[in-house]
Structure formats: structure tokens, C-alpha cells
Backbone:
């Protein structure tokens, strides 16, 4: 049965579809293929031959009903790794609707190169997408962390974006995210490779009582991005995220520099002015006004006129209220993975990380509990087709 328009999956039955008018202008068959997969001896043997792809309890993925497809998927396609029907698939990835913890538990051990995600923060006011109270946050998150460590390859990384919050009724800050970091290292066994920072100039001046009414606090514009790893030596190359040399560095290279010792004790060698690497090593603060963000990552998340937002408004689909900018996952995907590596986002939201992974030729898996967010996230892939230079 030919599929000319993208079906909205409502059940695991064969080819029950509902046309989505916003895809009529795109040949989406080649982008979103719903793999209602048969049990395959070839797939099973391919899975068993990969020494780092071991399923929990020795189980293999469940078979799936036959339905609409556009040719066979490659044996390393991520949709073959989870024993449930994807919400949708792309050329390189698969998105799943439902409990992300169950999705993580279904993944084979040591199969993922990078987990990059931003779970709901522990804010004292409730968000539409749901968020855990700070008093229970560590207990809530650790089961996810345990599975994340299990599915990571030995050289894999876990990049966690998490924001702070104020204590309820007081102008003091919660330390829930620091407690979480300690637990991730001391209880789960992850290693803190480096702490990075996202400078978001678009953050609102909240809580209003302390910042804009009583004016006893300043605007909080920085979020933590913790780069954790399964072992002390994760795969990484800062050559993949070099920044353009500054004018000062170019001047030093032109004029030369004398070897010296700074008052701090740092030794400046005569090779300090060399620029053969092709760019400067970025700091751990990321900024959005650079083509490749820095490590204080400065980037807003308040885009009101981007393709995703426009299409959501046109189709009457709810816009995810806490999106992170594409440059954030882009930086870490480029830093920590190679083409065809597997990137996982268990709290996928509007599929920012998934779309970036696709554009960078990385395979991906995304999990999200809200179907409307996944539905809107498809726009990011349509945008990539029309604007391939965006990522």
C-alpha cells in the first residue's frame, strides 16, 4: 500500500492514517518512514554480532506489524533498537511517544555515544509539560541516570542542561541541581568531565517579587550544562568546535611573541602565537552570536519568528514552552561524536537535538511524553529540508 502523505500513528494496526495537510508541499515519504518491522533473522544476527549492543535480560526487540513503508531500513537504524512502534522515523532516527524511562530500559547496553538532554527543571511553580518538586528531584531523576549510564558506550558522554531555581517564598537559591550532580557522580558512578555554562540573555527577570518589585536580586541568566562521562576518558575533540581566531591572536601571530613567564606563573612559549590549528579552542561558556558556540554558551531561546514557531501557529499546534536553541546540542554533538554515532535525547520536547543530529549525519533516538510536542517537532525536519544551512 503506497503512502503518499505522512500518517499520524494512532495504533499499531496496519496503515490507519490521517493526512496532515502541512506536509502536502514536501515529498515526506523519503523523510518520515513508519517502519512497521517484521522479526528478521538478519536483524537478530546483526544485533548479536555487535559486541557493545547487549539487550537487558538477553532480549531482542519485539516484532512489529507490517504496514506502510518506503523500502527497507538499514540494519543500524535506531528504530530497530527499541521494542515498540516509533511515533515517527526519519532517515537517521526514531522518535518515541510515552514513558522515556521505559524506552531507556528497552535500549541495549553500551549502544549510545551521546545523551544530550534537558529534563524539566525543579521549579516551585508548575509547568504545562510537568516538572518534579525540588525536594524529590534527585530521587525522581536517578532511575533515568542509572539507565543512561548503562546504555552509554565506554567512551560515551552524558550532557545535562539543568537550570537553578529559587526557594519558595524566599530570595534564596535552591541547591537541588548541585545535589543531583553529586548523586550522579557518587551514586551512579558517572564522571564530571567538565562543567559548562549556557548564558541565555532572553531569560525573564524572575521571581518578579525579588527582581522587579523589591529589586533585591539581579536577573538570573545562566544555566548549567554538565558534561558527564561513563569513564574518565570519553571520546572528544575540541578541533571539531574551534572558533575563529580573535584579532588580537592574529596580531600576535603577525608580530610574534617573546617567551616569558606571567605573574600568575604561566609560561608563555614562543609557539604561543601559532595559528596552524585553524581556530582557537572555545571556552566553557556558550554564546549564540558565534557560528560555533563558546563553552559560556550565550544563546537565547525566545525565537518568535523561526520556522518551527511559525508552523506551530499556522497549524494551531502547541509550542513547547521551554525549548533550547539548536546551537547548544550542536556544540556538544560536534565535540563528542562522529558521523553515524548514536545520539539520544530522553526528554526530547520539540526535537531540537534530534533535528541537529540528523543534519550532522548522526543517528538519533528521542523520547517524549507529550504527543503534541512530537507532532510539532516534525516541522524542524521540514525546515532542514528547505534550509539545509541552518544547522
Residues:
Amino acid at each position: 500500500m503506497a503512502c503518499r502523505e505522512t500518517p499520524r500513528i494512532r495504533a499499531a494496526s496496519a496503515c490507519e492514517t490521517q493526512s496532515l495537510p502541512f506536509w502536502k508541499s514536501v515529498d515526506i515519504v523519503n523523510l518520515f518512514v513508519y517502519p512497521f518491522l517484521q522479526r528478521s533473522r538478519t536483524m537478530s544476527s546483526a544485533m548479536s554480532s555487535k559486541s557493545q549492543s547487549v539487550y537487558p535480560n538477553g532480549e531482542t526487540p519485539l516484532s512489529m506489524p507490517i504496514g506502510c513503508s518506503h523500502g527497507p531500513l538499514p540494519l543500524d537504524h535506531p528504530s530497530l533498537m527499541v521494542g515498540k512502534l516509533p511515533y515517527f522515523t526519519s532517515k537517521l532516527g526514531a522518535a518515541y511517544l510515552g514513558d522515556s524511562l521505559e524506552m531507556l530500559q528497552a535500549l541495549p547496553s553500551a549502544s549510545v555515544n551521546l545523551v544530550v538532554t534537558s529534563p524539566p527543571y525543579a521549579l516551585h511553580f508548575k509547568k504545562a509539560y510537568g516538572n518534579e518538586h525540588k525536594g524529590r528531584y534527585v530521587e525522581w531523576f536517578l532511575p533515568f541516570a542509572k539507565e543512561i549510564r548503562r546504555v552509554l558506550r565506554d567512551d560515551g558522554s552524558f550532557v545535562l542542561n539543568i537550570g537553578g531555581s529559587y526557594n519558595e517564598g524566599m530570595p534564596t537559591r535552591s541547591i537541588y541541581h548541585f545535589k543531583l550532580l553529586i548523586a550522579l557522580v557518587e551514586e551512579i558512578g558517572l564522571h564530571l568531565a567538565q562543567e559548562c555554562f549556557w548564558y541565555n540573555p532572553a531569560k525573564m527577570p524572575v521571581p518578579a517579587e525579588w527582581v522587579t518589585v523589591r529589586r533585591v536580586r539581579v536577573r538570573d541568566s545562566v544555566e548549567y550544562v554538565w558534561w558527564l562521562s561513563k569513564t574518565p576518558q570519553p571520546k572528544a575533540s575540541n578541533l571539531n568546535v574551534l572558533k575563529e581566531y580573535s584579532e588580537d591572536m592574529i596580531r600576535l601571530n603577525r608580530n610574534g611573541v617573546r617567551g616569558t613567564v606571567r605573574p600568575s606563573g604561566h609560561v608563555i612559549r614562543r609557539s604561543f602565537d601559532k595559528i596552524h590549528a585553524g581556530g582557537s579552542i572555545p571556552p566553557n561558556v556558550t554564546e549564540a552570536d558565534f557560528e560555533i558556540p563558546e563553552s559560556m554558551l550565550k544563546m537565547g531561546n525566545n525565537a518568535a519568528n523561526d520556522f518551527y514557531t511559525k508552523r506551530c501557529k499556522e497549524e494551531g499546534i502547541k509550542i513547547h514552552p521551554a525549548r533550547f536553541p539548536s546551537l547548544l546540542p550542536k556544540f556538544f554533538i560536534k565535540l563528542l561524536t562522529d558521523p553515524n554515532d548514536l545520539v539520544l535525547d530522553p526528554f526530547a520536547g520539540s526535537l531540537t537535538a534530534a533535528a541537529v543530529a540528523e543534519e550532522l549525519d548522526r543517528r538519533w533516538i528521542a523520547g517524549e511524553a507529550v504527543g503534541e510536542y512530537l507532532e510539532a517537532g516534525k516541522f524542524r525536519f521540514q525546515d532542514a529540508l528547505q534550509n539545509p544551512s541552518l544547522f
About this structure: DSSP finds ten helices and twelve strands in the chain. The chain has two domains: 21-243+281-390, 246-279. The longest helix spans residues 371-386. The radius of gyration is 22 Å.
